[in-house]
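Example 3.2
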Amino acid sequence: MAGAVLQTGARVGAHCVVNTGAIVEHDVVLVRDHTAVGARATVGMGAVVVRDVAEGIQVRGVRAR
């Protein structure tokens, strides 16, 4: 989408949408279908997101919390 940034080595799986203004840093892997990460949310390095992340929230860890 418009203004989205995908850095070197980022991988986007089937059915994933990188929306307007999103930033996907280097070596990130997006694979989970039907899971949303809200605006201004931050997902920590190595985190595994298994459910939606609300707007403005920071999550980290395996089972991101």
